[in-house]
């Protein structure tokens, strides 16, 4: 599964470079986006003198696979974080309902105690 449409069309290093920068825009935060943009630029500089066509195709294939893995990892984190947020909210709601129910019981007990005290004072 390719992270963005058009991965199968990437044939040259320049196309790969543009493609990977577009992938970076899909990442959730500016900090993560900048980190991976920097990594893409560094890798492009490191391999800029590569002239073997087979090696270039290997690098392109591996870079697309890596981008796919990174985007899937970030998406999984986002889904998991959203799930945890939802579970925390449900827990808070359950605790709130629990305390409301117990508060009603406490109010009733407090009222009964006060009523007993009032009746005792009257006698």
UniProtKB/TrEMBL annotation:
UniProt xrefs under InterPro entries: Complex1_LYR_dom, Complex1_LYR_LYRM9, Complex_I_LYR
**Where is the Complex 1 LYR protein domain positioned along the sequence?**
12-68
> Which domain of life does this protein belong to?
Eukaryota
Q: Which Pfam families does the UniProt record give?
A: Complex1_LYR
As for family, the record states: Belongs to the complex I LYR family. LYRM9 subfamily.
| Designated name of the protein | LYR motif-containing protein 9
Tell me the organism.
Answer: Capra hircus
């Amino acid at each position: 599964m390719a992270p963005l449409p058009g991965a199968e069309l990437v044939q040259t290093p320049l196309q790969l470079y543009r493609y990977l920068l577009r992938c970076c825009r899909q990442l959730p935060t500016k900090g993560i986006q900048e980190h991976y943009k920097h990594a893409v630029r560094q890798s492009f500089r490191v391999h800029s003198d590569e002239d073997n066509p087979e090696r270039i195709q290997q690098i392109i294939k591996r870079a697309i696979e890596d981008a796919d893995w990174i985007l899937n990892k970030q998406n999984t984190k986002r889904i998991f974080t959203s799930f945890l947020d939802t579970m925390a909210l449900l827990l808070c709601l359950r605790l709130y309902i629990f305390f409301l129910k117990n508060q009603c019981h406490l109010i009733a007990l407090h009222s009964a105690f006060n009523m007993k005290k009032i009746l005792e004072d009257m006698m």
